[in-house]
Amino acid sequence: MTKIALITGVTGQDGAYLAEFLLKKGYIVHGIKRRSSLFNTDRIDNLYQDPHVSNRNFILHYGDLTDSTNLLRIVQQVQPDEIYNLAAMSHVAVSFDTPEYTANADGIGTLRILEAIRILGLEKKTRFYQASTSELYGLVQETPQKETTPFYPRSPYAVAKLYAYWITVNYREAYGMYACNGILFNHESPLRGETFVTRKITRALARIQLGLQDCLYLGNMDSLRDWGHAKDYVEMQWLMLQQEQAEDFVIATGVQYSVRDFVDAAAHELGMRIQWKGQGIDEVGIDQNGKTIVKVDPRYFRPTEVETLLGDPTKAKEKLGWTPKTTFQELVSEMVREDMKSAERDELVKKHGFDTFDYHE
Ligand code: NDP
Ligand code: GDR
Asked: What is stated as this protein's family in its record (predicted)?
């Protein structure tokens, strides 16, 4: 029997990789996308199927996690075997500016989907995956962090995700639903949003090298993260829904680097060498030609920061057979390569203008 999956947040980084992964597995994939005044389907344009074609296996629906009736209608229409709740206002810093919206979308949005499953009597049919996060650990109580480590969220985003985590556990226990949390540590890729630190770095250094940008401004350079590749992590999201019993899992690499280390690794990929001088807000990164190309801008500091995250994926290794395929160096290299390609396109456009340059030649 062909399985049917519904992905919220299908236009995001993970949504795009997961949709591709499930289509390859033979699923019919439905995705929820938000209405936007500009096209917001860049990441899934390669999967798009014309609605006039019959027998489509990739179908998009307009929707929003803040709209209960819309979610109810979509779940009723789709009758999914699996729901992957990836949609969220996912930027930690922005959640301090939009705390109420973040709580509504990321916290109550999760409840709305669980309730849709329950109201429609799909508790025994539909399996539910919740995109939980290492941000739940926040001010860390134990290192490395595992499934049993106590939570201490440090942002409106993390607090909203804490609600989502527990409501998922509660619906599993109260109604016998197959509902589970993937507690995923940071995962990146060339499809990562441009304002997350890794992508901001790879994009900026590529542009600096081509003379399209002068300087990269960053916040907390000492922040430590456990960075993996999104492509590897979506496979785990799927595996979590294929077990006999629903359980929560930490997905991480078990290796930690600082933001500064990430800059160094990306610079190395581009054949640049950065020398660090000064401390705190006075810290600067100087390239091999003596030019200052990295500066600290306090506007990127957060009111409460998560200084360090390091995951212990032992449970996922044992029960899901988890081994991250991509190393940190491979991840950085792929991101730099892709950002260099798009910087080169921008450089050509800048030099020649749109009229005289044919993108496809
Ligand atoms: P992205 O920010 O790339 O994607 C988020 C998706 O959610 C986008 O499709 C976005 O739509 C959609 N969305 C946002 N708000 C709403 C809303 N109100 N209603 C419907 N859709 C909405 O995130 P990622 O792909 O990186 O992450 C996927 C999930 O995993 C998120 O829930 C995130 O919080 C969580 N997570 C991510 C980690 C990571 O390192 N990437 C680690 C741990 C958890 P649009 O394209 O229109 O903006
Ligand atoms: P994070 O990712 O907050 O961990 O959340 P982000 O890349 O935004 O920040 C990582 C660390 O880098 C520091 N930092 C900066 N961050 C950004 N965005 N921009 C900067 O200029 C900058 N300078 C330093 C941050 O302070 C932070 O310490 C991501 C999101 O995908 C969440 O949705 C997800 O839940 C977690 O990862 C796990």
From this structure: Belongs to the NAD(P)-dependent epimerase/dehydratase family. GDP-mannose 4,6-dehydratase subfamily.
The residue whose C-alpha atom lies closest to atom 26 belonging to ligand 2 is 220
Cβ 195 under 6 angstroms from ligand 2: yes
62, 90, 157, best to mutate for ligand 1 pocket (most atoms within 8 Å of CB): 90
Which residues 6+ apart lie within 8 Å of 197 measured at CB? 218, 223, 259, 262
CATH code at 4-189+226-256: 3.40.50.720
Of 127, 325, 315, the closest CA to residue 230 belongs to 325
Supply the residue whose CA is at minimum distance from atom 13 of ligand 2.
220
Residue 191 CA, chain-centre distance (Å), reads 9
Q: Which helix (H) or strand (E) holds 330?
A: helix 328-356
Interface pTM (ipTM) of the complex? 0.99
Catalytic residue set: 133, 135, 157
Q: What is the pLDDT of residues 33-45, one digit of tens each?
A: 999 999 999 999 9
Average pLDDT value over all residues in the chain: 96
User: Which atom of ligand 2 is least distant from the CA of 199?
Assistant: 7
Please indicate whether residue 90, judged by its CB atom, sits closer than 6 Å to ligand 2: yes
DSSP three-state, residue 183 = strand
> What is the total residue count of the chain?
361
Ligand 1, atom 33: nearest CA belongs to which residue?
Answer: 90
Nearest bound ligand to CA 227?
Answer: 1
Q: What is the pLDDT of residues 142-166, one digit of tens each?
A: 999 999 999 999 999 999 999 999 9
Return the C-alpha torsion angle 33, 35, 37, 40, nearest 10.
0
Question: Where along the chain do its domains lie?
Answer: 4-189+226-256, 197-224+257-305+327-352
The CATH classification number of 197-224+257-305+327-352 equals 3.90.25.10
What is d(CA 205, CA 51) in angstroms, rounded to the nearest whole number? 40
Separation CA 10–CA 6 (nearest Å) = 9
Q: Which helix (H) or strand (E) holds 265?
A: helix 259-269
* Ligand 2 atom 12: residue of nearest CA: 197
pTM passes above 0.90: yes
